[in-house]
Write a structure and sequence with these properties.
heterodimer, A: 321 residues, alpha/beta, five-stranded parallel beta sheet, two-stranded parallel ribbon, 16 helices, 7 strands, 59% helix, elongated, B: 886 residues, mainly alpha, four-stranded parallel beta sheet, 37 helices, 51% helix, ATP-binding (chain B), nucleotide-binding (chain B), P-loop_NTPase (chain B), nucleus (chain B), Replication factor C subunit 1 (chain B)
Chain lengths: 321, 886
């Protein structure tokens, strides 16, 4: 028996430790860097899609601000912790009242991850606490939708919005990881990884690791085998062709996908996503197409998931124009 | 930096990335000087005409007789519409608002140059004064005013859409003019301009120093008219004879108008002067504050020195009090704390309310000794309400402090259930503050005040807290200040009668502006005044948000200006989930559907997810109340409605898949498209009247109720009818209703016997008599309310009496359904009484028909009274509840 090698998932292994390493959103990160240097961190809300470094950058910031006293001066709660109104009133408030010796310009930090899943009642209870203890304690919220955070809290915070990572940024990090892990890759493999990640760094690295552990070599085919998602570009050209009335071409694209073994449900859901962002087609038309795709989706879910179903969808779309 | 992905992968790759870049660069480069074919150079030729020059100038004495009344009327209208109009405080109120002189002109000496425009151009004759913005305005011909009479709205819309040729002119660029060239003008934008979005227009106008208002009044210098302008606005333009120009005219105006509104333009000068004054004042304030803070710092240092000395001289001396009083240095505080007002005079906005609060607190003791009247300001407690970030808590604290109160504060972070309030607060209410004894200064007869913050944050955990608090308000012996965001909530009702209501509003831009300018000066950030205006607008007058923003942004950006502003501001717009009504009106009004709206399909779908339970229902409720913009004729509009209805019905099928046993939640986006986005893409347009709340829920419960009643009737009549529910409803009930009501209506008291015999024959009870009639709909002559009206009340009561006097056959006895237990009075068992009482009460809630109930109940009580005590009790209770209800 070979010895059991315990290895962290790469996402954890290569999670940035300092703000300098956080990829993307250069403006916001540079702002955070200044805060980390000068201290006096304001209350912040960081919002954005999953996998773009919200939690990571808060952690980095807290580490850089507090250094060794991190364990003492940081309270972190995420959705896995009970964060009902009682916890806010007891645990959080007590922590805010706690006295910790910190260098000037540093404050205790309460990190509330996934804050959008907190109940409005619990958020209400935070309001005054944020103000009264602001001289010693600062809050950092991370959330996917800032609209789920009640307005009074938004008004008290600096709101930092993280945008999707640019492909170049993901590529940069992927290259670093591949270099460190000595992964063999081809360019189209990385391209596929970036494409499927859709700006989500965590997804990109996870997929990379899965591909490596599954096939050893990262190329387009292997990646799509792991991700198991029809290529959006193919879907796109399929839909565009159908929209232009050239049904043969469209069916040819469909055949390509079908032969690769994608299930109709994957094709339909990807189509729906692709069509939403297909700005070349005017809106009215797109709504009609979305309707057709959606109805097909419904039928597929009902069990009629045949090739004919999808072909019929394409025919109906080409019929629209 | 990372390798450029395009070069890494070659041409094929990186599609999304390059696209993004392209988009942003396109957005950035739109501002470009536009070359118009109009000739602003003619300008110099125009001279004179003081009439025109002084359009917006209050200091004009020449004015037509009529204008007083008209301007007053205009004022009133203005008040009606919205109070967004910022009225210049400098205007002396007694001076009537001058009506724009330009429109008077054509009557006098007009020689229209263009046929369709009553061009005031010709007016511009000769003056020694130089060219001003008004002159520039005068040159631009009025655009055509859409014909709109109140009566023929449909025609108007039809006409509008016919005319509609949405120009997608790629060459359009934003006009550029001299700085402050529009100073002194008041501009109103209405309708949809072909190229510029409303925000852009307003920003352009403001950028060049004009005042932008929302409603047309006598003071309006010019109206920029776009497509689909509201008929009321057009009517008002006509009434007030305002100048109106189109988008091209507006661009022309900006380009033609001279710098700073032109020399000799008093209005413009005044505006500019005022701005300078503001800036000067902010500077003075800032310096003052800097001085003060330096003083404080010095005092602090002195104190520290003192402590050190004390320690040196007597190491055992307690220094606690000193140490405590020394705060953290200012640099470590949040700006919002650092610049929090410390004096009443520093509070931004809401001056009136703050004064009121102070007055109330000053008079509190005398009010109390006289006994609270619960009107005017004679209340034991006051309730401050208003949106977040406008200084409610701060005001309450400062005033209480200035009045020498010791503050007890409870907020949402404290548990505030009934029990705990009773334990902790109740005793406090008649206490005296003890801090006064220790304070150095004498004479502070310390008083306590209770500030209850975030009262609307009391949640399910604070069981009974609201009620307890309201009762404290009545019997307190210290003043109480309650603070909440939304006073109109259901749970705030108990406070309505017992508190002095003080509503705080968002402070005006002006007040915020001076404060922000002060802060900027102190922090040495450069922010031009117009940018502050925009900040205020973006944050919806939330001063705390602006300060937070500045404090964060200033860490990396030393100067905010036109260029980096949009970038900075982008992420800062508060993002609050929309309320159901807002979602509906967004969907149905044409704003988001215009070609130049930037709302993508994805965002439109997102609206649905803000309230995915109600959004579809609300769209369904209101989609018929819209005047479809796309429709040119009535037929077309019907077709659009049909398409929308079709989509909604298909959405219902999707909904069934989602919410049934199938649980296909992945269909939610489809449901969003089908139920909300697509229907509104068809019918969007002008929403007629109010957005109604969905009537689906009410109808659903009504339907359930009838269904239940029908089941009962079906049970009761089963032996005679031998049919099912729907057959009963379709074939029997109409006839039964007729048979049961006609004798009473026609023969009066003599028909009673007949009616009762029919009831008995079908094993129906007295309640069933009503239910049967209740099923009448539409123009049915035997509907309950019609029948009730036609039967004399004496007949009704004797009918009840007679019915109750005899026993009646009961065929099928079902426990727990409506009307059971009283079918045969003789068969009523005592232990069932309680349940029956509850049922009866339920029925009372549902039925609006009470009179019968009361009488019936009374009768039952009389009958039962001697038999059982318990029965009597419940019956009395029932009687009183129903009487109360009445």
């Amino acid at each position: 028996m070979p010895p059991l090698i315990l290895e962290l998932p790469w996402v954890e292994k290569y999670r940035p430790k300092v703000l300098k390493d956080v990829v993307g959103n250069p403006d916001t990160i540079s702002r955070l860097k200044v805060i980390a240097k000068d201290g006096n961190m304001p209350h912040v809300i960081i919002s954005g899609l999953p996998g773009i470094g919200k939690t990571t950058s808060i952690h980095c910031l807290a580490h850089e601000l507090l250094g060794t006293s991190y364990s003492e001066a940081v309270l972190e709660l995420n959705a896995s912790d009970d964060r009902g109104i009682d916890v806010v009133r007891n645990k959080i408030k007590q922590f805010a009242q706690k006295k910790v010796q910190l260098p000037p310009g540093r404050h205790k930090i309460i990190i509330l991850d996934e804050a959008d899943s907190m109940t409005p009642g619990a958020q209400q209870a935070l309001r005054r606490t944020m103000e009264i203890y602001s001289n010693t304690t600062r809050f950092a919220f991370a959330c996917n939708q800032s609209s789920k955070i009640i307005e009074p809290i938004q008004s008290r915070c600096a709101i930092l919005r993280y945008s999707r990572l640019a492909d170049a940024e993901i590529l940069h990090r992927l290259l670093e990881v591949t270099a460190m892990e000595k992964v063999e890759y081809s360019n189209d493999g990385l391209q596929a990884l970036i494409f499927t990640a859709e700006g989500d760094m965590r997804q990109a690295i996870n997929n990379l690791q899965s591909t490596v552990s599954g096939f050893g070599f990262v190329n387009e085919q292997n990646v799509f085998k792991v991700v198991d998602q029809p290529h959006p570009l193919v879907i796109r050209s399929m839909l565009v062709a159908a929209n232009n009335g050239s049904i043969e071409e469209s069916i040819a694209q469909l055949d390509k996908l079908w032969k690769k073994g994608y299930s109709p449900i994957d094709i339909v859901t990807t189509s729906f996503r692709v069509i939403k962002g297909l700005v070349e087609i005017n809106e009215e038309k797109r709504l009609e197409m979305m309707k057709e795709i959606g109805i097909t989706h419904m039928r597929v879910l009902e069990g009629v998931s045949s090739y004919l179903q999808i072909a019929g969808l394409l025919a109906r779309i080409s019929d629209l124009s | 930096m990372p390798t450029d992905i395009a070069s890494f992968f070659g041409k094929k790759s990186g599609k999304p990335k390059t696209k993004r870049v392209a988009e942003s660069s396109a957005a950035g480069s739109t501002v470009k000087k536009q070359k118009k074919n109009t000739k602003p150079k003619d300008v110099e030729e125009f001279t004179d005409d003081s009439d025109i020059i002084e359009i917006d100038e209050p200091v004009v004495n020449k004015r037509p007789q009529k204008s007083t009344t008209r301007s007053r009327a205009a004022k009133i209208v203005e008040d009606d519409e919205d109070d967004l109009e910022v009225i210049d405080l400098d205007d002396e109120p007694k001076k009537p608002v001058k009506k724009p002189a330009a429109k008077k002109a054509p009557n006098k000496k007009a020689a229209p140059v263009k046929k369709e425009a009553p061009a005031p151009k010709s007016l511009a004759s000769s003056s020694k004064k130089s060219f001003t913005a008004e002159d520039a305005l005068a040159m631009i011909p009025d655009c055509e005013l859409p014909e709109a009479q109140a009566g023929e709205k449909v025609n108007f819309w039809a006409k509008q859409s016919e005319l509609k040729t949405h120009a997608t002119d790629e060459n359009f660029t934003k006009p550029r003019g001299a700085p402050d060239c529009l100073a002194g003008l008041t501009i109103v934008f209405t309708g949809l301009l072909p190229h510029l979005s409303r925000d852009d227009c307003e920003y352009l106008a403001k950028q060049y120093g004009a005042k932008v208002t929302k409603s047309i009044s006598g003071k309006t210098s010019v109206v920029v008219l776009g497509e689909d302008a509201g008929p009321s606005k057009v009517a008002k333009i006509k009434a007030l004879k305002c100048r109106h120009i189109d988008e091209a005219g507006f661009c022309q105006l900006i380009e033609a108008a001279p710098k700073e509104g032109g020399e000799g333009n008093e209005a413009a000068q005044k505006v500019l002067e005022k701005r300078k004054e503001e800036e000067a004042k902010a500077k003075a304030d800032a310096e003052q504050e800097v001085r003060e803070s330096e003083m404080r710092e010095k005092a602090k240092r002195d104190k520290l020195l003192k402590i050190q000395k004390l320690r040196e001289s007597d190491p055992r001396a307690s220094t606690d009090t000193y140490v405590k009083s020394i705060d953290r240095p200012d640099e470590e505080k949040l700006w919002t704390v650092k610049y929090a007002p410390t004096k009443m005079s520093q509070i931004c906005g809401n001056k009136g309310q703050v004064e009121k609060l102070k007055k109330w607190l000053t008079n509190w003791n005398s009010l109390k000794s006289k006994g609270f009247k619960y009107y005017g300001d004679s209340f034991p407690a006051s309730l401050i309400s208003g949106p977040p970030g406008i200084g409610k808590t701060t005001s309450a604290h400062i005033i209480a402090k200035e009045m020498g109160y010791d503050i007890i504060e409870k907020n949402a972070s404290d548990v505030r259930s009934k029990n705990l309030l009773n334990q902790t607060i109740k005793d406090v209410l008649d206490n005296e503050g003890v801090m006064g004894f220790f304070s150095k200064k004498e004479k502070t007869t310390s008083k306590l005040i209770l500030i209850m913050d975030e009262v609307d944050g009391m949640s399910s955990g604070d069981f009974g807290g609201v009620g307890a608090l309201a009762s404290f308000c009545r019997k307190t012996s210290i003043p109480i200040i309650l603070i909440c965001n939304d006073k109109s909530l259901q749970k705030m009702r108990p406070f309505d009668r017992v508190t002095y209501d003080l509503q705080f509003r968002r402070p005006e831009t002006k007040a915020i502006k001076s404060r922000i300018m002060t802060i900027c000066l102190r922090e040495k950030i450069k922010v031009p005044p117009e940018i502050i205006d925009r900040l205020v607008e973006y944050t919806k007058n939330d001063i705390r948000q602006i300060i937070n923003l500045l404090s964060t942004v200033s860490k990396t950006v030393p100067e905010l200006n036109d260029k980096n502003f949009t970038e900075v501001i982008k992420g800062w717009e508060k993002n609050v989930a929309m309320k159901t009504f807002d979602i509906t009106s967004r969907y149905l009004s044409s704003q988001i559907w215009n070609n130049n709206s930037k709302v993508s399909i994805n965002e439109k779908i997102e609206y649905y997810f803000d309230d995915y339970q109600f959004a579809p229902l609300m769209v369904q409720e209101n989609y018929l109340n819209v005047n479809p913009q796309k429709a040119g004729s009535k037929l077309e509009s019907l077709e659009l409605v049909a398409k929308a209805a079709d989509s909604i019905s298909q959405a219902d099928l999707v909904d069934r898949k989602i919410h049934s046993a199938d649980q296909m939640w992945s269909l939610m986006p489809l449901h969003a498209v089908m139920s909300a986005v697509r229907p509104s893409s068809f019918v969007h347009g002008q929403v007629m009247g109010r957005i109604n709340f969905t009537s689906f829920l009410g109808n659903l419960s009504k339907g359930n109720k009838y269904n239940r009643l029908l089941t009962d009737l079906n049970y009761h009549t089963k032996l005679r009818t031998l049919t099912n529910k729907s057959e009963l409803r379709m074939n029997y009930l109409n006839l039964l209703a007729q048979k049961l009501s006609v004798p009473l209506m026609q023969k009066g008291a003599e028909g009673i016997e007949e009616t009762i015999s029919i009831l008995d024959n079908y094993y129906l009870t007295k309640e069933d008599w009503e239910y049967v009639l209740d099923f009448g709909v539409g123009t049915n002559p035997y509907k309950l309310d019609i029948v009730q009206k036609k039967i004399a009340s004496t007949v009704k009561s004797s009918f009840t009496r007679k019915y109750n006097a005899s026993t009646h056959p009961v065929a099928i006895y079902v426990v727990g359904t409506a009307g059971v237990g009283r079918g045969g009075a003789s068969s009523a068992k005592p232990d069932l009484d309680e349940a029956a009482a509850e049922d009866a009460e339920e029925n009372n809630d549902e039925d609006d028909e009470e009179e019968q109930d009361i009488k019936k109940d009374k009768l039952i009580k009389q009958k039962k009274a001697p038999a059982k005590r318990a029965a009597k009790k419940t019956a009395t209770k029932r009687a009183t509840t129903s009487r109360k209800k009445k």
